[in-house]
Write a structure and sequence with these properties.
By secondary structure, the protein is mainly alpha-helical. The chain is built from six helices and two strands; from the N terminus they run H-H-H-E-E-H-H-H.
């Protein structure tokens, strides 16, 4: 009897068939099915190739910041697994779908940059590219979780799950949403 190939489920539990509601981000949120967010792919060798990296793996990689966590990918994978278990329990949804919603809502659409002419520097409002929106959202979510977990009893996966769920709801309790609103406010002032 031939063995039938199956589509990989993340941690053998969750499917990766999620819908990206924001049309501009469909090419930059990769829904490639993987068993684990540890593919050992070389996604930084070429410009824009990181857009092909599975979105969960990008989140996993962004957990490995601040010297003491550098290179500890297995620890990051363990945190992601625990975090997704918590999200699945609390929301009764596919955690990948919740993550995608969080990324869509946490990425700022408008930012301000420095424009300098002859020593006079002023800030100018600019639109943000879709890839940067995804990058910024992932960064803000992980930073918020890291700050929430520091010197508290709550574990890191709990804080990450809270941050992702709050960001997916668009709640102002989320660090990422607060930062996004601040960035948007500053950009609006500099139009």
């Amino acid at each position: 009897m031939p063995i039938k190939a199956q589509t990989p489920k993340l941690f053998r539990k969750w499917t990766s068939d999620v819908d990206v509601s924001d049309l501009s981000l469909t090419d930059y949120i990769s829904k490639k099915p993987v068993f684990m967010p540890h593919t050992a792919g070389r996604y930084n060798k070429k410009r824009f190739r990181k857009a092909q990296c599975p979105i969960v793996e990008r989140l996993t990689n962004s957990l490995m910041y601040h010297g003491r966590n550098n290179g500890k990918k297995l620890m990051a994978v363990r945190h992601i697994k625990a975090c997704f278990e918590i999200i699945a329990l609390l929301t009764e949804q596919n955690p990948l779908q919740v993550l995608v919603e969080a990324i869509i809502k946490a990425g700022p659409r408008e930012d301000s940059t420095r424009v300098g002419t002859a020593g006079v520097v002023r800030r100018q409002s600019v639109d943000v590219s879709p890839l940067r929106r995804v990058n910024q959202a992932i960064y803000l979510i992980t930073t918020g979780a890291r700050e929430a977990a520091f010197r508290t009893i709550k574990t890191f996966p709990e804080c990450l799950a809270d941050e992702i769920m709050n960001a997916a709801k668009g709640s102002s309790n989320s660090f990422a949403i607060k930062k996004k609103d601040k960035i948007k406010r500053v950009a609006k002032a500099n139009r």
